[in-house]
Structures are given as C-alpha cells and as structure tokens.
C-alpha cells in the first residue's frame, strides 16, 4: 500500500507562514538572552557554530535526498541560489568569526532572506521536507546574523555596505561562470523566469540585471539605516 501525503498549500498570512516566523523570533530572542547571561565567550562561539551546522546540514541532506529519490536537475536544483549558497558557507563564518565576513553577510542575509520570509516561495507546504528546509535556512540565517549583532556586538559601517555590494558582484561573476559551464540560469542571469515576477517590470535582458543591481543599493542603505541612527544616538549622548 502506498502512503500518500497531501501537503497543505502555503498561503501568505496563513498559520503555515506565521508560526515558523513567531517560533524563530522567540527562539532567537531566548538564545541571545540566555547566551548573554549564562555563556562565557567559548560557549557563545560553540552555540552559534552548532546552529550554523544545523542550517548547513539541513541543506546538504535535502539535496542528497532529492538526488536519490527525486527528479533532480543539476541545471536548476543545485544549492546555488543566494540563501542556500550562504547556508552552505555559514559554518565557515561562525568558526572564524571574522569581521569582514560579518560585513558581507549582514547585508546578504537580511536583504536576501527578508523577502523570502515575507513572501515565501515553497513548492510543497507543511509537512514536506522542502517546507522545513526553507524555514530552517531563511530564519536560521537571520538568527545567526542577529546573534552576532546582539551577542558578539558586531556592527556594520558605511564601508561595510560597499564591501558587501562588491562581494555580491563576485558572487554574480561566479554564477555567470557556472551558468556557462552547466548551461543553466542560476540567479536568472541568462533570462527571466518563465512565470510572472518582479523582473518583468525591469525590461528585457540584460537591462533587468542592471536595474536589479541598482535597486540593491537603496536596499542595503535601508538595512544600514538603523545602525547609523543608533550610532548617531550613542554619539549624541556621549557628547552631552
């Protein structure tokens, strides 16, 4: 007898959408609070490194599972889209904890995951593997970067914004090379997606790529704005 699992369709604003966000927000808050109160530096480093490995292993297991039991397509399904790509690399960041890595990843993670959290794109809803993989990656990455902000007290500067922007061009260059080698279309650098998307308003190739790059600048500035305001507030209090 075949076991048939019917996945509930995920809609924006549904319990499938809201519950993971609430759970992750509570988890991140408690983790930060507990770490600051109870952990020494070594324990803080171990805790966030283990969380990073949970995120990365989730992605690896998901793709291995699909390679073995699903119709896996190397031209479309490799974990090369930005959030999955970061998820594979995040244990490197949590191991070395270099400030230049934080500068790059802060803008990549917040800018790249927030849209996915607000308007999730999940083929199969709860309780599919893809559903859990999606939320572990997106909400897990946000938890990691906020841990570095509120536990390790790392803060970006305006220079960090441009470092992250230039590093993003390196990622785009890597995707161009891999698209050429695989005859693929990762990051939609060769053509727009077949389905309707925001890129439809940005013109045809290659203009939609240029417009998309320009939009990243105000997005990164918006991400940096709270840090700038907070820094100005601290400086004002220190001078009075």
From TrEMBL:
Record-linked NCBIfam families: intg_mem_TP0381
Protein name in the entry: TIGR02206 family membrane protein
Pfam families documented for this protein: TMEM164 (PF14808)
Keywords: Membrane, Transmembrane, Transmembrane helix
Superkingdom per UniProt: Bacteria
InterPro entries associated with the record: CHP02206_TP0381
Transmembrane segments: 15-35, 47-66, 78-94, 101-119, 131-152, 164-182, 205-227
